[in-house]
Write a structure and sequence with these properties.
The protein has about 575 residues and is α/β, with parallel strands linked by helices. It is built from 17 helices and 17 strands. The strands form three sheets. It has an eight-stranded mixed β-sheet. A seven-stranded mixed β-sheet has the order 5-4-10-6-7-8-9. Strands 2-3 form a two-stranded antiparallel sheet.
Length: about 575
């Protein structure tokens, strides 16, 4: 295996910063020409690689991509007045994703519909015009366009507001937020994302007089492809391959989300290639359109005996963005010590770091399937003051953060081939600490499974370095193996996690309401299916998933609705529920 000191000398955080700058100059919508230019940038940097093209109009492992969208330009202005958005070529984030092209320059009257998420908001609206709305544009589209015949949506909507880090519209009045129409969009519509100050100015104008806009937007279908880059190093052996993933999509600038992950992955692969002759396993780098690209890749190649480390928003200057690096472990249904190992390599008192409970939200989530049995962890700085906005620029990135995370990932790869007793002891300690965070659980099935997870992690670790036999025996004796299923079920009809591509507007509204009650309901559904596929009885799978995700509420009704909809959409086998 490579010499760690030499590989650290080879690693260049300056390369990563420069590459973030290049990537963030492109508007990286799925299927766009600028996404293809970004692909070329990555491939030019990393050298030899494979490029997989997947037609965007197909479904891959239940993931149906939004249509291919390539923004070409446009503007928005008051009729016979000043510009609101002067040039979409320069500020493409100002166009709502999946907007149709206009019929030349269109003159429309604008109606203030408040949130735009309820029918009563449209009582004064006149069909064929524009709405000004501050609700979620995916929901606004349903009412404004599908129900009331609007052509254009002018929108200010900031996701994930967080006062503790000054992430509010009032404190970021000039910021444009990344927004999109829903994946199921079928009717003609286009839209613009407005900064808060422009939104308020337009709102005031409407309150005083009839207000008209002139709108021009040009877009087409682009390449109609999902483009996935794969770079493979090392050789096939009996040791776990390591799959490093990063999503390449998102609007310009998107420096931290996720030019940072894509650039860091490129530098890690460049460095490892310098030492390829010393690698004792296969290492694969994968750059994808988020989740859809990973799901498509798994229809072509399914790694076996592998680990996954996902890099998503890993460049933040934590002082500027208010972020903490969250390390998301693999779910309880796929026990692994990988998160504990990566955590000890990340521990550094100069940075904020947190080992979280399992959650989805990025490409590690696609591997959440016990029938694949691939432990996948993710690194994400969260929250981020400038998340999904025009202010997510390279000056919000930090060379120190990039060096910290990049070298921790390289050290983790090194440790998987050169585990010392010191490192093994640290990992043991972290596993035991995590065990006692959960073991107070009173339910015997849950407690037994927690004991099993701890024993499994320690047993896995023992394949890499010596683990105290007394410790292994202690936890082995605590497990009632009769209560651990030995026969798996195959419930889902796809590989990996089940997407939300099947959801109708009714489902979206139902989920919105249900997640007000249980914010991590999606993760619960995902993990329940995993545990049920492992062979646990339905009630046991519910209790284990609730304990893992710290859910106290009764979610029986929500689960039954979810399972009913999955059956109706033919995504799971009917015979089990």
């Amino acid at each position: 295996m490579f010499n760690l000191e030499e590989i650290f000398y080879e690693f260049s955080e300056k390369n990563v910063i420069e590459l973030i700058g290049k990537i963030s100059s492109f508007h990286r919508a799925k299927g766009s020409l600028e996404y293809s230019q970004t692909v070329k940038t990555i491939r030019n940097f990393v050298g030899s690689s494979n490029l997989f093209l997947f037609p965007i109009d197909k479904t891959y492992n239940s993931w149906k991509s939004p249509f291919s969208w390539n923004l070409k330009g446009g503007f928005l202005k008051y009729y016979n007045g000043k510009y609101i958005v002067s040039n979409l070529y320069l500020t493409p984030i100002s166009a709502i994703f999946l907007s149709d092209k206009t019929n030349g320059v269109e003159k429309l009257k604008v109606f203030d519909v408040g949130s735009g998420e309820n029918e009563e908001d449209y009582k004064d609206f006149e069909e064929g015009n524009a709405v000004l709305a501050e609700g979620n544009p995916r929901i606004v589209y349903h009412y404004a366009v599908e129900k009331f015949g609007a052509k254009c949506i002018l929108n200010h909507y900031m996701r994930s507001q967080e006062k503790s880090i000054d992430r509010t519209p009032e404190l970021l009045p000039d910021t444009v937020n990344y927004t999109s129409f829903p994946d199921f969009k079928k009717k003609y519509a286009y839209g613009y994302a407005l900064p808060y100050n422009e939104f308020l100015e337009l709102k005031e104008s409407i309150s005083k007089k009839e207000t008209y806009i002139e709108a021009f937007l040009d877009s087409d279908e682009g390449t109609n492809n999902i483009e996935v880059i794969e770079k493979t190093l090392g050789k096939h052996t009996d040791k776990q391959s390591i799959l490093l993933t990063a999503h390449l999509c998102h609007p310009k600038p998107g420096a931290n989300d996720n030019a940072s992950g894509s650039a860091l992955l490129a530098e890690i692969m460049r460095v490892l290639e310098k030492f390829e002759d010393t690698l004792d396993r296969q290492i694969i780098g994968l750059w994808v359109p988020e989740m859809f690209g990973t799901a498509a890749y798994l229809t072509k190649k399914v790694p076996k005996n592998a680990y996954v480390i996902n890099l998503d928003m890993v460049g933040e200057d934590q002082f500027k963005t208010g972020s903490t690096l969250n390390l998301t472990p693999s779910p309880w249904s796929i026990p692994s010590f990988l998160a504990e190992l990566l955590f000890i390599n990340l521990e550094n008192h100069f940075f904020r770091l947190s080992l979280e409970k399992y959650s989805g939200g990025s490409d590690h989530y696609i591997f959440s399937d016990p029938n694949m049995n691939i432990p996948a962890v993710s690194l994400t700085n969260w929250p981020d003051r400038y998340y999904h906005s025009s202010e997510d620029t390279v000056d919000k990135c930090s060379k120190e953060t990039i060096e910290w995370i990049g070298k921790a990932v390289l050290k983790t790869i090194y440790d998987l081939s050169n585990m010392t007793k010191e490192v093994s002891a640290q990992v043991e300690g972290k596993i035991i600490n995590n065990h006692f965070k959960f073991i107070a659980e009173k339910n015997s099935i849950v407690a037994n499974y927690i004991n099993y997870i701890t024993y499994t992690k320690l047993n896995q670790l023992s394949k890499y370095a010596e683990v105290e036999k007394e410790l292994l025996d202690f936890f082995k004796e605590k497990v009632d193996f009769v209560l651990i299923p030995t026969e798996k079920r195959k419930i889902r009809k796809n590989k990996g996690s089940i997407s939300n591509s099947w959801q109708t507007i009714e489902d979206i509204l139902w989920f919105k309401s249900s997640k007000n009650k249980v914010p991590n309901l999606d993760d619960f559904f995902d993990e329940f299916l995993n545990l049920f596929e492992l062979g646990f009885a339905k009630e046991d799978a519910i209790n284990i998933a609730k304990s893992e995700l710290n859910i106290k509420e009764d979610v029986q009704y929500e689960l039954e609705y979810y399972l009913k909809r999955l059956k109706e959409e033919n995504l799971i086998e009917n015979s089990y529920f």
